[in-house]
Fold this sequence. Notes:
The complex is a heterodimer. By secondary structure, chain A is α+β, with helices and mostly antiparallel strands. Chain A is built from two helices and six strands. Chain A has a domain at 46-126: SH3 type barrels, CATH 2.30.30.90. Chain B is of the alpha/beta class. Chain B is built from 27 helices and twelve strands. At the A-B interface, helix 1, strand 3, strand 4 and strand 5 of A face helix 8, strand 9, helix 9, helix 14 and strand 12 of B.
Amino acid sequence: MSAITLPVPSARPRSTGVACNCEPLALDPVSHPGESVSASLAAASRLGTAPLGFRGRIRAVDATGCGRSLPPAELERRLLEMGFVEGAMVEIRNQGLFGRDPIAIRVDHATVALRRAEANAIHVDAVDGAR
Amino acid sequence: MNELTAPELARIPAPPPPLPLAAPLLHVALVGNPNCGKTALFNALTGSRQKVANYPGVTVERKEGSFVTPAGRPVKLLDLPGTYSLRARSPDEEVTREIVLGHLPGEKRPELLLCVADATNLRLALRLVLELRHVGRPMLLALNMFDIARHRGFGIDTDRLAAELGVPVVPSVAVRRGGTQALLEQLDTLADSAPATTPDDWAPSGRAGTRALQREADRIIAACVTQPAKPDTVTSRLDSVLLHPVLGLAILLAVLFLMFQAVFSWAQPPMGAIKAGFDWLGTMAGTLLPDGLLRSFVRDGLIGGVGAVLVFLPQILVLFLFILVLEDFGYMARAAFLMDRIMGGAGLHGRAFIPLLSSFACAIPGIMATRVIDSRRDRLATIMVAPLMTCSARIPVYTLVIAAFIPDRTVWGVLSLQGLVMFALYAVGIGSALGVSFIFKRLVWRNTPAEPFMLELPDYKRPSPRSIFFGLTQRARIFLRRAGTTILAMMVIIWFLASVPRPPADADQAAINYSFAASIGHFMEPVLAPVGFNWQINVALLPGMAAREVAVASLGTVYSIAAEDDLGANRLGRTLAGKWSLATALALLAWYVFAPQCASTLATVRRETGSWAWMGLLFGYMLALAYAAAFVTYQTAVALGAG
């Protein structure tokens, strides 16, 4: 199984080889998301509905209406604290037997387990090579 | 190839000259994400000079150790609970924040923060470092597992990293001798130079603040870290098997099966040795001391009582060996992943799996391990059912009764009937835990939503024998301390009740029939007769609440005193077989599946829940279940002709 790697960006002075999955601010598709996210998300899909093996980049983290477990603002903060921020690359590596839940998501060099209901707060754009 | 030699060492300044006088004590705190190798580093730095206690008022484990730097400076090192941010979500993380900010009463604010980061996984660690820059303490960042990172092809520019963060950075390898040398020397340098302090203006960051910090951390990583050309695939290949929806569950079951096999078979030889040792001590005491109260006290009370409990040390160590190895390997979080949906059906959180598994050794570490569960509801649900897991203290009761009453024959050609009964008792415990938790979910927490499942699955790594050794010695020490205090005290009381008052000179019955124990046992008879217990069992039930394994020792005391001869522990079973009916024996087994909690477990529940009500509820429901189960078992067995 292949890990997450990005195409090498144009070489910069101090960074050689493959850059970190999260690129500098200026290159991010959503550079300064506010506390609410605009309707442009319609084009992105939700990570919680993605199939096993999906690879993509986080467009936005917005928990409005996701999961019945926590207030949306709190769920969003916890996802951010686990490293799910805009611009990060994610890949669904594994899933459970019942209801394909929970899912194991590779974010950069870490793996985080989530239930699909909460993963729906993560809006993603598929990246080439995704199944 | 993984030694910390060439470039890293060259960058470290020469050690300062030895301090002329006794240097002042330096207080250092270890801070880092969960799974970053913090505990391994703590063990490497402090060796055996560790003290484990609790923080006053809260039940968070406080681990402190000490060591001396190369320049001779004494250091007190505090291992703070792992956290992703100072915005604490669990009691453990709160302790970390309060100490770092100097707000915990009675706890000295650390003079230096030693941040630990897994060098192969820097994103979340660097965000924590950036957050810690706002607490106004000098800091040092240790890039732990640096050898693994280099082996995988990461190139980390530590000079640039130190410049970007404004914090000295040293590589470290906690699990290798000499792997902390650079770190120790840097500590001396920092302590001598009175490093510049950062602003003391920490405030909980909102969503925007967390995003900004993470972006800054990601920018620094992009600038200082060269990613490996070829990604490491060990973890993903292992996960494709171990987290496989079907195969993964099968492997988990196999691991659990192997674990229980080991607990029962590997532990036998040392258990036999311990038992033989205590038997020999008892015989020695019998020949050396004159006949009378003192001989009875030393032989039956002290040696017999403590020996009956110490015999279980090997089983507890084997169980913890498995738990520690699996934890260190990175499998425990995977087990939680695999079990999340299954346990969720019963209203339990996936994270409850680890505490419940520990409860098979003892409910106390299990209940304490529930601290990893953030939500109070999920934590309480786990605490309420953890004591239903068959703890190792119940094994002696089961073993004794099964060996005495269940015929030693095979069924279906391969399975031992005794083993099957043992397995059934475990299964009833697990089944009732799920059932009780389901009822709690329906009755108590009908309207409380479930907590999200959010758990980091650390990359697999080879377990470190050193860390496992430290963990095991710690567990052994806790168990021995308990055996030397609570259990010993209870055994002395039991012996006293069973021996005093002495029988009159013209006594025509066994001495114990004149003792306080007999009075108490007879007093309880009307209540316990319907479940088939005689007064000797009633006497043993009381100390069994102090610690369940004591019940066996008490039965030994009661019957050996009653028989007034040298009744070896191995002969107790035969004695019981002659005195109890099968129905009584089965009822006792059923009782002990639910056996009202031992006093230390109740005390732990009281502390962890902070409420007498939860403790009372636990005690009440388990007592009711135990009585009901024993009643049904006894009456059914009698009706079937086993009375």
